[in-house]
Amino acid sequence: MGCCTGRCSLICLCALQLLSALERQIFDFLGFQWAPILGNFLHIIVVILGLFGTIQYRPRYIMVYTVWTALWVTWNAFIICFYLEVGGLSKDTDLMTFNISVHRSWWREHGPGCVRRVLPPSAHGMMDDYTYVSVTGCIIDFQYLEVIHSAIQILLSLVGFVYACYVISISMEEEDTFDFIGGLDTHSYYQDHVELKPVKPE
């Protein structure tokens, strides 16, 4: 019963992680955030692997999922530090786009309550081909939305890590019990079917 409850909980957690990762992937694609896109892609693959291992009773797959959750927590903690500008990091750098574009988080211009206005270059007294955007009226700044997303990922990963370890331990105990009982049955079967034959003197 304990194993079933743990497995069901882990399956639900993996499903929630998939939904949250897909939602995050969509908005990262809209913002051309290539580093998070790559991380989300790997996360989705490993969560599917963990979900498959949980359903099919494959402890090794769940172990891979467990290791990845630790790495995923670390990555999301880095994203939180990045957007809160902790330790010399700056959210205005092109780190999340691998320095190949000047795009920022999609939430920067499309957050709740944000009013986006495109300004012509002449408004800045500069003659170039760039488009300038003015964003005002945001209810919550984009960096805090990114922090909330990462915090949710960390919470789900920590709970998933605990349940994954629990399911692995239960599965290992059941395998050991099965092997022990199977060994006894084999030994008893051997003893029951061995016939002692008297040795005839020549």
UniProtKB/TrEMBL annotation:
It is found in: Cell membrane. Keywords: Cell membrane, Membrane, Signal, Transmembrane, Transmembrane helix. InterPro entries: Na/K-Atpase_Interacting. The chain crosses the membrane at residues 34-55, 62-86, 151-170. Residues 1-21 form the signal peptide. Belongs to the NKAIN family. This is Sodium/potassium-transporting ATPase subunit beta-1-interacting protein. It comes from Sapajus apella. The gene is NKAIN3.
